[in-house]
Amino acid sequence: MLITRASEYAILSLILLSKAESPMDSDTLSRELSISKSFLAKILQSLAKAQILNSYKGVNGGFALKKEPQDINMLEVASCVEGKAPAVFECAPSLEDCPSEKASTCSIWPFLHKLQGKIDLFLANLTLADLLND
C-alpha cells in the first residue's frame, strides 16, 4: 500500500507542528488529531530518529520540526514511518529478486516498475511546504 495510516498521521502531525509556535507533546497532538497516543508516539519517535523532528524532554518538552518545511519531502516521511519506501505494488524491486519462477515472462513488472519510479519522484519532490500552501 502506498500511503498507510502511519504515513497519513505523520503528515498531519508535521502540518500541525509546522504551525506551532513551540514544541507540542504527543498528548496534545493525539487529542488534536484524534489519534491513538501510543500509535502517534511511535510515529513521532521515528520522525525524530530520522532527523525530521527534534524531541525535547521535560515539562515543556515535545516535538518540533528540525528541518524547514521546504526541506521535508513526502518520500522521506513515508519511508521513515513505514520502515521502507512506499510501494504501489507487492512485487520485487527487480526481476532478478523475484521469487517466482516466471519472472522472465512477467509482462506487467516493467509497467509497475515505471509507475513506481514516477510516484517516487513525485513524492520526493512534494514537500511539507507544498502541502501547507495548498
Automatic annotation (TrEMBL):
Q: Name one GO cellular component term.
A: cytosol
Q: Where is the signal peptide?
A: none
Which PANTHER family does its entry note? TRANSCRIPTIONAL REGULATOR (PTHR33221:SF2), WINGED HELIX-TURN-HELIX TRANSCRIPTIONAL REGULATOR, RRF2 FAMILY (PTHR33221)
List the Gene Ontology MF annotations in alphabetical order: DNA-binding transcription factor activity
Question: What organism does the UniProt record list as the source?
Answer: Sulfurimonas autotrophica (strain ATCC BAA-671 / DSM 16294 / JCM 11897 / OK10)
Q: What is this protein called?
A: Transcriptional regulator, BadM/Rrf2 family
Q: Which domain of life is it from?
A: Bacteria
